[in-house]
Amino acid sequence: MTHTRPVTMVIVAIIGGVGAWALEGVLSALGEPVIVPPWSWGVGLTLLGALVLAIAWPIRQRLYSTSKRDLLDPFYATRVVLLAKSTTVAGSLFLGAAAGVGVFFLTRPVVAEDTVWSSASALLGAILLMGSGLVAERWCTLPPDSTGESVLEAPGGEIA
Hints:
mainly alpha; elongated
């Protein structure tokens, strides 16, 4: 298993951005109300990111402690790393969607300030969610074998 690639995150963000922007355009053209992201969207995404980090922290503690490494449940570690990878991809999708909605509102002839700020809040929450997924992925990476190198120097190793 490899870390989530930046190309994957960029492609998913572009898909989310174009999809959200197009959806807003279609709704506006049909005379329907457009979708304005609520303030709670950014807060909720941030809290989800914090939850993923809290779940991944015990694995990091056990991986970098030689005495507790045997107590690590591999199935739990696998579930957490998959959650971290999906959090990264979902954060990329939400980042693109929030950016697409923000661009849609900023290109209107009359810009409502509340819609821009709520889109910015959603964008910030999506960035934090994606970042926490990336950090949790790195936390679930096994340190390299003991070859005399520092654990922090070499990014090698396997994902737990």
